[in-house]
Design the sequence.
């Protein structure tokens, strides 16, 4: 337990250091500060100074945790900061549910469950760190520290585009979840797109008063029927091929009734 | 139905009885295009020939619809009315709870005689968060919308390829626009058309 407590300041401080440097140095993040829930909390004009202030606080706590000698006050400060994060996330979720949190880099996703779990994990780690005393590191502790860091990074939606999106792309490429359509099958919408591009449809569209009333396939053609006031407009489009000029139209006195 | 189809087919192909205007190929000509009267609605005023809302009840051929502005509409479906629900459909598919847009002619008694009714039609833009078995998980302003591919109906339109039923070129992370039919009271949509920027 002593070893685990001694490990926490390192993991927390590295995470806070990263968050602080992003807030202080990332120009994109400052540019998007107005869209975060922080802007809602302190006002859009004060969003960037507030972001910098949080960054400085994170930097100070990270430095205190990293530099010897260890003291319980450092853990308490980290816990207070984490509790502040949790409170801020709850505020953002309630008051500005469409705003992003502005925690770790610029992105437009609103606060979600993962953000809460991340702040909760940080708080738990900070509480453990209060009892930290000097302790020699061993491989199992390093592995635990790495696991904690991976968990914190995995819970960061800001980083999804670096690992989750490529991973999902790879899975889609391997599994092909959207099956190719059966050959020879032409969805109606494909024919309608051809229709919309055709001179025949353009010349008749001002007369059409309804959407598609009826459609059927015959002799390699797809017939599509629209109402045109008291009259009926019937189009014929080729099922195969994509030449819009091959579409024909007739306007008939056959009433729009069956 | 078959005889009517034969009549319409002969009008198109062979110049049967009752043909007003027809083309062997190409367009009808400008007089047809400019024959329609412009809608007579003042800018900013509600269009009396349009209604939107959700179906409260279906009685015979009339839909009782509650608009989003809490105004009731009575919408009559006649034989010539086109109904859309992920494609052309029939009147028995209109169910209480369905959302709709309707266009037609307002009768003196206030009933809208519908010419076209679109049931549950939605138009959403968003990012593809994930693609799983026949489903696209769309992130629409932080809300997840589950879009189902419907074989034989769903079509993808890419900027550099003709439209097709093949949705497999869509990629996780890209921006898309989905037109489809909402499944009432869920965050799920059946895809009619998905527009892709590439």
Sequence:
């Amino acid at each position: 337990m002593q070893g685990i407590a001694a490990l926490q300041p390192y993991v927390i401080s590295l995470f806070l250091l990263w968050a602080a440097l992003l807030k202080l140095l990332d120009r994109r993040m400052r540019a998007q500060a107005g869209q975060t829930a922080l802007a809602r909390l302190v006002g859009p004009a004060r969003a960037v100074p507030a972001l910098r202030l949080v960054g400085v606080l994170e930097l100070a706590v990270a430095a205190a945790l990293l530099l010897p000698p260890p003291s319980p006050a450092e853990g308490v400060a980290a816990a207070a900061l984490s509790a502040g994060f949790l409170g801020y996330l709850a505020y953002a979720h309630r008051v500005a549910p469409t705003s992003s949190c502005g925690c770790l880099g610029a992105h437009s996703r609103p606060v979600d469950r993962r953000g809460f779990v991340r702040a909760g994990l940080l708080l738990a780690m900070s509480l453990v760190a209060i009892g930290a005393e000097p302790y020699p590191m061993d491989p199992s502790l390093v592995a635990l520290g790495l696991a904690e860091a991976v968990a914190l990074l995995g819970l960061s939606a800001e980083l999804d585009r670096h690992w989750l999106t490529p991973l999902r792309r790879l899975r889609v490429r391997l599994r092909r979840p959207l099956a190719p359509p059966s050959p020879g099958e032409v969805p109606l919408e494909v024919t309608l797109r051809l229709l919309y591009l055709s001179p025949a449809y353009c010349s008749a569209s001002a007369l059409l008063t309804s959407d598609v009333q009826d459609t059927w396939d015959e002799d390699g053609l797809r017939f599509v029927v629209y109402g045109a006031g008291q009259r009926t407009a019937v189009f014929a489009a080729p099922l195969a091929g994509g030449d819009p000029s091959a579409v024909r139209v007739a306007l008939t006195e056959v009433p729009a009734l069956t | 139905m078959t005889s009517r189809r034969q009549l319409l087919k002969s009008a198109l192909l062979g110049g049967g009885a009752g043909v007003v205007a027809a083309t062997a190929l190409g367009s009808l000509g400008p007089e047809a295009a400019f024959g329609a009267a412009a809608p007579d609605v003042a800018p900013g005023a509600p269009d009396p020939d349009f209604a939107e809302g959700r179906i409260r009840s279906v009685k015979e051929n009339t839909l009782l619809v509650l608009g989003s502005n809490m105004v009731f509409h009575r919408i009559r479906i006649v034989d010539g009315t086109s109904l859309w629900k992920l494609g052309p459909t029939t009147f028995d598919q209109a169910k209480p709870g369905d959302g709709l847009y309707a266009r037609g002619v307002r009768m003196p008694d206030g009933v809208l005689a519908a010419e076209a009714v679109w049931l549950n039609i939605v138009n959403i833009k968003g990012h593809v968060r994930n693609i799983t078995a026949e489903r696209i998980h769309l992130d629409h302003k932080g809300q997840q919308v589950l879009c189902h591919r419907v074989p034989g109906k769903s079509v993808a339109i890419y900027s550099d390829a003709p439209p097709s039923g093949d949705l497999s070129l869509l990629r996780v992370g890209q921006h898309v626009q989905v037109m489809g039919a909402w499944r009432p009271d869920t965050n799920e949509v059946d895809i009619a058309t998905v527009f892709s920027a590439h």
Q: What stands out?
A: Residues 188-252 of chain A form one domain.
